[in-house]
Structures are given as C-alpha cells and as structure tokens.
Amino acid sequence: MKAVAVFPGKKEVRVIDAPEPQLQSPTQVKVRTREVGVCGTDKDIVSFTYGSPPPGSDFLILGHECLGEVVEVGSAVKGLQVGDLVVPRVRRPCPHATCPACRGGHPDFCITGDFTERGIKEAHGFCSEHFVEDVAYVHRVPTELREVAVLTEPLTIAEKSLRQWEHIQERLPWRPAPGRAVVLGAGPVGQLAVLTLLRRGFATTVYSHSRKPNPKADAAEAVGAPYLSTQDVSPAELVRRVGPADIIYEATGVVKPAFDALEALANNGVLIFTGVPSDKQPLTLEGAEFLKQVVLRNQVLLGTVNAAATDFDAALEDLARFRARWPGGLERLISSRHPPEAFLDVVTGKAGRGIKQVITFS
C-alpha cells in the first residue's frame, strides 16, 4: 500500500510501498484512510528534530490527524461496522504498572514518558492507504461531518485545555462566568480554540503576528472574533482595547510573544500553553516582576499536551455545533487538499500556505 514515511537515518521523506496491515486480534478494525491533516509536529519530524520510528524499523509512517472509513471489523468489535467513518486517537499508554495515568486510561498524563504516539513516537501513523487499530482507540464520526472531521484531533487540544481550565477555576470561591479570552496565534489550533471559546461564551480576541488583511484574520472575524496584530498592538494596548484576559490561549510555539502576553492576563487568570517550540528560543524575563505578578494576582500557567477519549467525543459534538452556528466556518479553515506525493511540499510550505492543509487518499 502507499504510505508517506520519514527515514531519520537517511534524512529522507518519501512515498513508499508498505505492507498492507491485517487484523491481529478480534478487537481490531481495519480502516481505509480518507484524509490526514498536516501540522507543525509533522514539520518538526520531516526536519529531523523530532519523531522516532518503531523499534526495529528505519522509517516512521507519518500522520496523526486522521479521518478514515472502516473496511473490516474483528469478531469481538461492537459499536462499529463496515462503512463507518472514524477518527483515531494518537497516544497509547506506557507499559509500566506504576503509572497511574496510563493504567487509569489517561495516557495524555503519562508520568513515565514511555508512551507511544502514532505518527510521532515509536508507532507508525495514519498517512497510508490503510491502518489497523484497536476499537478502543477509534471514535465513530457522523456522516454529516465527513468534510470537516479531519479537524477533530487538533480541536481536542482546545477541548482538553478548557476542561482543565474548569477544574483549575474550581479554586475560586465563586463559579466564574465566561469572561474575556485572548488567543495567541491564528493557525488551525488557534482558530479551533476561538470557536471553542466563543461557543462557551467568552468574548474572544485573536492576537497574532501578521497584519490584516490575511485569510487567518478573515476566518477569525467571520465568526465574531476581532483580530489584532502584535506588530501594531502591544500587550499594554491590548489590555486598553479589550480588557484583561481571564484566559490567554497560546497556540504559536513562539516563546517571547507567549510570555509578553502575560502582561494582559487578568487577576485569577490562566495562561494556557499548547505550543511546543522546535528550535532554541532564548528568553529574558524580569524575574522578580514575573513572580510578583503571578503570585499577587493568583495567576496560573498551564501546559497541556495530547488529549483523552472524552476530549475526542467532545470535539465531535462541538464540530456539529460549530457547523450549525457558523455555516462555512470550519470549511474555511481547510485551505486545500493534496495527494500523498505532495506531503513534503505541503509540510514545508512549497505547495502553498493557508490555515490547514490536508492529504487525501482516493
């Protein structure tokens, strides 16, 4: 079968002819890949700064944002049938009995670091014509979400983030109502966070680098989120224009803007980090002022990665809500679709830029 693979030892990325996987247990399903989203993690992997093949393999099949169609089910599979659309989760638990997170079904909080991630860390991904997965790690997709369901996995980042925010804010003596939110960055993760925050009632502003006009600003403002450029508006001016932010949602992976924005965080606010910088980015902080602000204002800095099964379920429910509230809003995020042979050009930007690029399998 056709698959897109990276060879770290040779520093190569190419389409290969890989063995077609077969069911190995009665609880597995075989899936025909329909679409695979391309993201910054893929760019890091093809730049050979991140990612690792399965043990014993010299290559890693890429792809972790996936929509597929079930073509075969094991004898013990319940709740899925041939023809169903599905999205798979990415992370698999570590093997250690001493890891309460993985043993409790929450590998996104693994304490050992010995988890695997399909298409990223020691497990082949989904950018191939077929893949096999245990039914426990796939989620059924309503057919009406066919055109946008490839956005499920990046949406789970926001779902998990806000689920954690709700738990954190239980520290307050009152139940906080949705207030103001600022999203740093206007890529796919940022745009999906905007929809998630708006849906929950937050007055949301996008604060990103590029000046208007640009497609990312258009997408944000089309759903009611004002767009401001960091080139024109300082964090202090941001506060004057929209007020202190109860949530700042970082979706850039760029260190300095993330910490500069702390100036705009409200008392009792939470700064959520979701970006993972791929290169060395030095940072200078006024340490005393930094600690003074965070302590005296009761602020929280939260880092979050990956997502749990409940976040995938929530993402699929929200995709349906988003389509009903903002017709065309999700479709606007998918800039173009390309064949597997174009993967390297897509991930490096040679095939054109936009918000979300998608690889399709016929």
TrEMBL record:
Q: Is the keyword Repeat in the record?
A: no
Q: Which CDD domains match?
A: glucose_DH
Q: Is Zinc found in the keyword set?
A: yes
UniProt-listed Pfam families: ADH_N, Glu_dehyd_C
Query: Which keywords does this Swiss-Prot/TrEMBL entry list?
Result: Metal-binding, Oxidoreductase, Zinc
Listed SUPFAM superfamilies: GroES-like, NAD(P)-binding Rossmann-fold domains
Q: Which residues form the Alcohol dehydrogenase-like N-terminal domain?
A: 26-142
Query: What is this protein called in UniProt?
Result: Glucose dehydrogenase
Which organism encodes this protein? Myxococcus llanfairpwllgwyngyllgogerychwyrndrobwllllantysiliogogogochensis
